[in-house]
Amino acid sequence: MAVETVPGPMSGHLDPGAASSAQIKKSIGRRYAAERRFRMYGVLAILFGLAFLAVLFGSIVSKGYTAFVQSSFLLKVNLDRAVIDPSGQRDHNAIMTADYTKLARKALAAQVGADPANRPQMRDVGQLLSRDVDVEIRKVVLADPSLIGKTVPVWVLASGRVDMLLKDQLDRNLPPETRKISNQQLAWIDKAHADGDLALRFNWGLFTNGASSNPETAGVGVALIGSAFMMMTVLLLAVPLGVAAAVYLQEFAPKNFWTDLIEVNINNLAAVPSIVFGLLGLAIFINFAGLPRSASIVGGLVLTLMTLPTIIIATRAAIGAVPPSIREAALGVGASKMQTISHHVLPLALPGILTGTIIGLAKALGETAPLLMIGMVAFVVEYPTSPLSPSTALPVQIYMWATSAERGFVERTSGAALILLALLICMNLIAVILRRKYERRW
Amino acid sequence: MLAFVVGLSRANALAKKGDAVLHSRPGYYGAYFALWTLLPALLVTLAWSAAEPTVISNIVSSQLPENVRSLSPAEESLVIGRINAVARGLPKLSRDDYELVRRTRYGFTSPADAQKVLQDRGVALGSAPEPYVIAAAYDQVEMQNKSQLALSAIAAGLAALGFLYANWRTSPKLRARNAVEAVVLVALVLSSMVAILTTIGIIFSMLFETIHFFGFVSPWRFFFGTVWDPRFSAAGQTGGGDGQFGLLPLLWGTLYISIVALLVAVPVGLFSAIYMSEYASRKVRTVAKPLLEILAGIPTIVYGLFALITFGPFLRDLGSHAGLNISATSVLTAGLIMGVMLIPFVSSLSDDIINAVPQSLREGSYGLGATQSETIKRVVLPAALPGIVGAILLAASRAIGETMIVVLAAGIAANLTLNPLEPVTTITVKIVSQLTGDLEFNSPQTLVAFALGLTLFVFTLCLNIYALYIVRKYREQYE
């Protein structure tokens, strides 16, 4: 007669009796299922991240790629001498102030077959053209005054409405009141499009123009220059300071209260919210030191302070990775500590330092919040000529367009975001390539 | 440059003479020359330029007529502003106009003429300048010119003296290398001080303005007020005290969004870190890890843009299908997007931390028959827990200080609500909205931004220091 095994508290796992083997089998099945589930959670987590990445890029690209083309009319403009240069003297003032809009309207009216004598019709024709059409034609005349009196073909920008219609962002089946294009205008647009007088062309203006309240002539030119000035400031200040500080902390600093304090400080500064740096810039550089608002030099200084911890941490890691044997060999042949570092340690750590610097710069390039604090939210039309003149930055330009109400700015915003992402991806790629190429395992 | 070359050639000459062995390599003698020539002159120039404006303006205002000096500080600063305006205009004038303005000083020509002349050069004055203003401005320009001259002379003199001193010291025995290296070391120490200076700058600049702000609004009403309604007072009006500056709604909004963000980021980040470090094959790791890290490299403005134009409207439409009223800017929108932003942050830190758990612990667990997931759940994670908590705290500090996502996706209404489908606002959003646009620097509406900034800074500082302490402690445990 078999003695029944008394199920103990741990019978499921440890009881060696025959009765429990089925139990064990069952529990093994359960445990393996748990194992598979656990693994799946991990895969799901990673897939979630990657899927989000894909959706994000997909959304920005699909909304933004149209910003790189712009609808333009090919007008055969008669540069009428009577309008532009009535005195025949090539008077600069007269050329500057002539009514080019009228010339453009006339040309377009002739091409689409509108009646030039009918005033309301002419106004409707004018609405198809960008409000800055006069500037474009004037540019042609100023470039070559001998064209006055001739009829020349000129590509001019169409208005934002026409642009949206051509890019299918505006439903042509809407009633004319909501789509803000009359049936007559629609017919003209279709005629011009069929004749090849209206087409989508590559949008150079997006890269070269400054701020504008008309979406079709707004561009990131000023912002690009401002960002370039800032990056230059960061490069000139943050890199020498960061490398020097890292060399001191890693190679010279004695281990005491002060160096501990500096270390904690640097690690903490790397995690301080960026907007706090903006407040610092506003209080110190603008209020106290009296630097001009909206100047890219202030932005550069703020970003320098922000980037410094990143560069210091990366440089310290790179210097720390150089094996002590190199230092000992150099010291052994009579080099001073400073010579050892500048002749051997730093050159060997250079790839790591460069990688860290580029990643720091990329972070600085995409930073927006501190720049809002120091007045970079500015409507700047003229190219900034020096770091002291007012400008904006690329991410700030995105912010300004994102918060503007006009619908035409939506694709500009995504287009500018695409430019920013492309720049950042280039910088990160360079960093990765540098790391792959020069990485040395000791 | 020249000094460097001279030093180099001197050293070379000494070396050629051959009667003694040089202590240092010739380049160091060159650097020694250059340092002695440039450094003293540079230091004096810097100190001089820093002191010059204060000294001159003190002298100028001490020479103002009695009735001006007895004015109130506000009116006096107005007068000084006029003087500065005129002084900036003077060097732009042509010789004749300059004479004309100068005669105004002695009352020979009418002040109105002087105003007109200055106006032509872009100096806008509200009214005709009084003779004493012209006189003061004239003195100021004169003194500036003199001071510039004196400075150039002194700097040149110091440079020459330094050069001569270096020349006199140069001999084979001179320890040029040690001297140059000492200077370089000082430069290194100074650059490592910049980090500390930055922190001090942050604290003091914000503390100063915050104290200023508490002069308008009592700290009690700021920290414990439940209503945020900073009415912008009409220009020129001081007071503005009828605006309400309650921190609590903002703090609640900040914490609420951060909690939602962490609810997304922590599970996803942690699971992907576990998978990456424990399960993934080398191939998957090399592909998936950099891809996930791209998420960390995307600027926050792009996340905000995505939330604003794609995700917010998407959630709103989804809500209206399900019969829920989700506004396009809401806690949920901002929190979810911010959570995604934090995923790589949590995962890369936890990845490091999990990798630091010694392999022997795992092997012990396998030896007892545990499956891989049981080992992770019962052995690796408990061992890594302090480090992971540190990582989560760092992520939380990120979430609290994040600005652009919430500016574009969280809304601007300061709601004290539990409903995640409604818009709330955060500390950072309010800092931005109080400080963009035209500012006057003495209204509580502007100054409150600094009080908010200081609160934010102290909050994240505590989180950071505690988190860094935990992480460091944890690393030491297994080293």
Radius of gyration of chain A: 33 Å
Total count of helical runs of at least 4 residues of chain A: 20
Structural class of the helix and strand makeup of chain A?
mainly alpha
Kindly report the spatial arrangement of strands forming the biggest sheet of chain B: 1-2
The major pleated sheet of chain A works out as: 3 strands, antiparallel
For this structure, the CATH topology of the largest domain in chain B is MetI-like fold
Spell out the helices and strands of chain B N to C. HHHHHHHHHEEHHHHHHHHH
- From the spread of the alpha carbons, the general shape of chain A counts as extended
Q: Cα distance, first to last residue of chain B? A: 50 Å
Using brief descriptors, characterize the structure shown.
heterodimer; A: 442 residues; mainly alpha; MetI-like fold; three-stranded antiparallel sheet; 5% strand; extended; B: 479 residues; 2 domains; 2 strands; 76% helix; flat
Describe the structure.
The complex is a heterodimer of chains A (442) and B (479). By secondary structure, chain A is mainly alpha-helical. Chain A folds into two domains: 68-203, no CATH class; 221-438, MetI-like fold (Orthogonal Bundle), CATH 1.10.3720.10. Chain A has 20 helices and three strands. Chain A has helices spanning 11-14, 20-64, 81-84, 92-97, 100-112, 119-127, 133-143, 160-166, 176-179, 183-195, 205-208, 221-252, 257-269, 274-288, 296-320, 324-332, 337-365, 369-373, 394-403, 409-438; strands spanning 69-78, 151-157, 198-202. In chain A, strands 2-1-3 form a three-stranded antiparallel β-sheet. In chain A, helix 14 packs across helix 15, helix 15 (296-320) crosses helix 17 (337-365) and helix 19 (394-403) runs antiparallel to helix 20 (409-438). Chain A is extended and about 90 Å long. Chain A starts with 10 loop residues before the first helix and ends with a helix. The relative contact order of chain A is 0.10. Mean pLDDT of chain A is 84; it is low at 1-15. Chain B folds into two domains: 2-174, no CATH class; 244-477, MetI-like fold, CATH 1.10.3720.10. Chain B has a two-stranded antiparallel sheet. Chain B is an all-alpha fold and 479 residues long. In chain B, helix 1 (2-17) packs antiparallel against helix 2 (26-62), helix 10 (248-279) packs antiparallel against helix 15 and helix 13 crosses helix 15. Chain B has helices at 2-17, 26-62, 66-69, 73-89, 95-105, 111-120, 131-169, 176-214, 219-224, 248-279, 282-297, 300-321, 331-355, 359-367, 372-401, 404-409, 427-435, 444-477; strands at residues 228-229, 244-245. Chains A and B meet through helix 2, helix 12, helix 13, helix 14 and helix 15 of A and helix 8, helix 10, helix 11, helix 12 and helix 13 of B.
